[in-house]
Structures are given as C-alpha cells and as structure tokens.
C-alpha cells in the first residue's frame, strides 16, 4: 500500500506540474555528489563534451510534413502515422500508434498530450480512467457525439511521462493535418503540454484555461478558436478543480451553439 505521505507529495508535485510551475527544475538532473575534475583534466573533458550535440529532428519533421500532406483523409492520415518512424517514442516501448477516436466530421477537435497504458493497449486515445471522466463531462455538456479526439504525440511515452517538446514537434505535422482535414468550429486543448505545443507558448495551464485563443495554420486559411482546459488526469488527482473544467465545457458548448 502506498505511503499516504508519498501519495500526498506526488499529488502536490503533479498539481504544480500541470499548473505550469517548472522553474524550480533545471534542464537536467544535478549530481550533488559530483567532484569537479582537476585543472589538468578540464581540457580533455571539454573536448569530449564538444563531441556531443543535441539531436537534429529536422529530417524527421520534414518526413512527417511530407507524409501528412499526402494524406487525403483521416484514414490515410492514420496509415501515414502508423508508417512513420521518425518519432523517438516509437522505439521506447510503445506497442502501436494511437491516432484518434470520434466523429470524423466533428465540429470540435479535442487534443490531449499522449497515450497512456490503456490507450497503448487498445489503440485509441482517452479510453482509461481519464478518458471515462472526459466522456462523462462531454456527455453532460451535450458534446459527446460532437468531438474528434487525438493527442500531440501518437506513441506512449515510457512511464506515462509528459512528451518532450521535440517529440511533439516531430508529430505536429500530423496534428496540423488532422486540424486541416476536419476544419472544426472549435478546438479543446487538454492540459499544459497540449496547450503549449499547439499554441507555441510557455504559459502555465492555470493562466491559459478558460481563455479563448486562435489556432491558425501557417499554410492555407484553416483557423479556429481554441480553448485550453485542465487535463482529465489532473482532475482525477485534484477533484476540487473539476468545477473549473466544467465551466470550460459549458463555455465550449455555448460557443458551439452560437456558431450554429
């Protein structure tokens, strides 16, 4: 049985992560036991470090754009994603690509962050506990049959961690192509990772949620109003926040009704 103090700590850390508080973390773990090298070794260490360089994802992004552009419909886009080998998550333990579920001509496009264990097993997004909560809220707002649901990445990250901006960048052409094919009347972004990826921002979800933004593709005339809200998985950990997400759902439903 999980220690109550550990569970409370994990819940608090998850709350601040989803709220966008990340300034207390460095770019990489810090080894507090590290002893600096003597001066005579610094030159050697510097030379070794210079050999390492950040991974270049430009080739993978270009391939994704080409495959996405060739997809004439959502079925073809699903096949293109399954055939794509450029996302590093594909080789990190995921069993299959997880694209989407919902109505192909839906007026609302819902975008989460990444598949989890249940999604990886079943091949569809939001089918676990968080997905059941999402469906319940959509149904209560009269929106369940009006959504097409996908994620910013299509392979489960190891340990259900948040996808990196680089992993989202590689998959972005497919997300944008889904947006262009569906041409929804509104977009609902679930959680900080999805909102930051789509809107190209570093803002926290608590600042963005409930505020309408615009998503406009660089090519073409596809655009739609976007509403960031809290991720259902966060609501399971912090039930008190459900009232904020429910207010966002009602706002989305009202906006959709006004657009009809």
UniProtKB/TrEMBL annotation:
Classification via Gene3D superfamilies: Uracil-DNA glycosylase-like domain
Domain annotation Uracil-DNA glycosylase-like: ranges: 99-250
Any one GO molecular-function label of the UniProt entry: metal ion binding
Keywords, comma-separated and alphabetical: 4Fe-4S, DNA damage, DNA repair, Hydrolase, Iron, Iron-sulfur, Metal-binding
GO-annotated biological processes: DNA repair
Catalytic activity: Hydrolyzes single-stranded DNA or mismatched double-stranded DNA and polynucleotides, releasing free uracil
EC code(s) of this entry: 3.2.2.27
Xref: Pfam families: UDG
Claim: Protein transport is one of the keywords in the record: no
InterPro entries cross-referenced by the UniProt entry: UDG_Type-4/5, Ura-DNA_glyco_family4, Uracil-DNA_glycosylase-like, Uracil-DNA_glycosylase-like_sf
Family to which the UniProt record says this protein belongs: Belongs to the uracil-DNA glycosylase (UDG) superfamily. Type 4 (UDGa) family.
Name by which UniProt lists this protein: Type-4 uracil-DNA glycosylase
Organism: Brevundimonas abyssalis TAR-001
């Amino acid at each position: 049985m999980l220690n109550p103090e550990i569970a409370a700590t994990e819940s608090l850390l998850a709350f601040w992560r989803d709220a966008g508080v990340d300034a207390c973390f460095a770019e990489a773990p810090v080894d507090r036991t590290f002893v600096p090298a003597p001066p005579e070794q610094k030159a050697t260490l510097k030379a070794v470090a210079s050999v390492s360089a950040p991974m270049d994802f430009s080739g993978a992004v270009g391939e994704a754009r080409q495959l996405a552009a060739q997809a004439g419909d959502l079925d073809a886009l699903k096949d293109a994603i399954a055939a794509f080998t450029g996302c590093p998550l594909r080789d990190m333990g995921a069993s299959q690509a997880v694209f989407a579920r919902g109505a192909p001509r839906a007026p609302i496009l819902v975008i989460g962050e990444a598949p989890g264990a249940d999604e990886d097993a079943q091949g569809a997004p939001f089918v676990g506990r968080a997905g059941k909560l999402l469906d319940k809220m959509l149904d209560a707002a009269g929106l369940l049959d009006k959504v097409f649901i996908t994620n910013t990445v299509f392979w489960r990250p190891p340990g259900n961690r948040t996808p990196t901006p680089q992993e989202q960048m590689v998959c972005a052409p497919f997300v944008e192509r889904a947006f262009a094919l569906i041409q929804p009347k509104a977009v609902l972004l679930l959680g900080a990772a999805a909102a930051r990826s789509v809107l190209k921002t570093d803002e926290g979800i608590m600042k963005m949620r409930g505020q309408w933004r615009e998503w406009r593709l660089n090519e073409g005339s596809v655009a739609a109003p976007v509403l960031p809200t809290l991720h259902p998985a966060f609501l399971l950990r912090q039930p008190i926040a459900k009232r904020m997400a429910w207010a966002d759902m009602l706002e989305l439903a009202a906006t959709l009704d006004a657009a009809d």
